[in-house]
Amino acid sequence: MKKILFIATGGTIASKKTENGLTPQITPEELLSYIPEVEGLCEITAVHPFNLDSSNVVPKNWSTLVKVAKEHYEDYDGFVIAHGTDTMAYTAAALSYMIQNS
Fold this sequence. Notes:
Blueprint: E1 3-8, E2 15-18, E3 21-24, H1 28-33, E4 43-47, H2 59-72, E5 78-82, H3 88-98
Parallel strand pairs: 1-4, 1-5
Antiparallel strand pairs: 2-3
């Protein structure tokens, strides 16, 4: 069975409504509980390197994601990053340059 590392970063997908608007509060384990079928498809492990609204994601956070991927690269068959939509395209572009020859 394939091994997947689920990297949760916050964002709208992990947010709950609060008196101050949406705020990332849902744990990676809770996110995974919404898709129980995944357990039959792969072995999945979750990590939570930071918990931010994606509008607050900066290059330092990209470096953190690269570090997580590099630290676990040999141990997993794939990586899934849960990320908010505000800056997802910027993060995806940055990671495509920062993680090369993988």
